[in-house]
Amino acid sequence: MSGLLFFLPTLTRCRMIRGLGDGVLDRWLARGDALTPAAAGRQAQWRHAFDWHGHDWPVAALTRQADVGDAAGAHWLRADPAHVRADMTTARMLACGALGLTPDETQRIARDLKPLFGDAGFLFDAATTDRWYLRAEPGSGLPDGGDPDEVLGDDLKLHLPAGAAGKRWRMLFNEAQVLLHNHVVNVERERRGAVAVNGLWFWGGGALPERVRSHCGEVVTRDPALRMLATSAGACCHDPDPQGGVHALGADSDKTWLIDLNDLRDETLETHWLAPVDAALRRGRLRRVELAFVSGERIEVRAVHRWRFWRRMARHPA
User: Which candidate among 92, 109, 154, 313 keeps its CA 20 to 30 Å from the CA of 145?
Assistant: First the structure.
């Protein structure tokens, strides 16, 4: 394998994972070469591996194509189910997407949201229980509320569409909240202690990218949008092996592999992925490894870097 690129959560989150202290990650951070940092966020992380035309981050079109297969020829916006809670000063989104809705609940809510968005010129469709869509004509001025992972817990006012151009979407956001607040599905969910679906989050707008290029020939990810982007670039996609390791990744291949571990939050990041890759690097089965954190840091690691004993690993607080 010529090289391997890891997509990783924020550096701070990685360092907080129990069991990673003084392990492979800390050693790589100390002895590897720091590359020029990128902007924070998954969009910049994806741009590091893929090249597509335009400035949009068309997650909605990519997942729509994966979910339904009809994304071509239109613009799409994710309008995902969300749980929003107001406090003394503002409102914060505490959950988005996977709220445990059943197919029946999803369709009953969708039936009542369709007229609201239909009157505004958009087709609303709840394609899955977690991913809801608006279909729009080109030039509709779609908003981008930002990646839900980056918005969760933050002041919503900082992320809602601003200015005169955003007024229409703020109104749709508020009208959807009013409709959902007393919806019978939410009344039933609250009775059984389930979280209420009391908001929608607009994000990931755009059209399917026409031309996608990548230096990664093999991609390991669970993310449906990233899989569709990789497929558009001609890469082969794989589900992550629960046991991790390069033995399952075609170690004899001369292709560059991309392994997306953004959803890992436990010590398996080290035991199932980083440690086996470190062993492969030492044995010469890998030429280089690059770490791309969603917080923007970039680190390159080569086998020869293991001799940099003078570079001390960072101390973790007890």
Answer: 109
